[in-house]
Amino acid sequence: MIPAGLLLALTYLGGDAAQINLGLPNAVTGIFQGILLFYLLGCDLLLLNRFRWISKVRAA
């Protein structure tokens, strides 16, 4: 949680700096932050809910 929080905080600060220095619109940094958030949530989902392939044929 702490590394993910720090990463999102850095994107918010970096997004503000990019808007000021490069003149990027707010939507560009918002889209990047949204993609990053969905990536972090997807990784969390896959780590917590591991899928296992169970064979239908079991040895007796």
How would you describe this structure to a colleague?
With 60 residues, the protein is mostly helical. It has two helices and no strands. It has one domain (2-48). The chain is elongated. The model has no long low-confidence stretch (mean pLDDT 80).
What attributes does this structure have?
60 residues; mainly alpha; 0% strand
Question: How is this structure best summarized?
Answer:
The protein is an all-alpha fold and 60 residues long. It is built from 2 helices and no strands. Helices cover 73% and strands 0% of the residues.
Q: Secondary-structure map with pairings?
A:
Elements: H1 2-22, H2 26-48
Helix pairs in contact: 1-2
Low-confidence stretches: none
Number of beta-strand segments: 0
Number of domains as seen in the coordinates: 1
* SS-based class: mainly alpha
Shape annotation: elongated
Which value, in Å, is the CA radius of gyration?
19 Å
- How much helicity do the residues have? over 70%
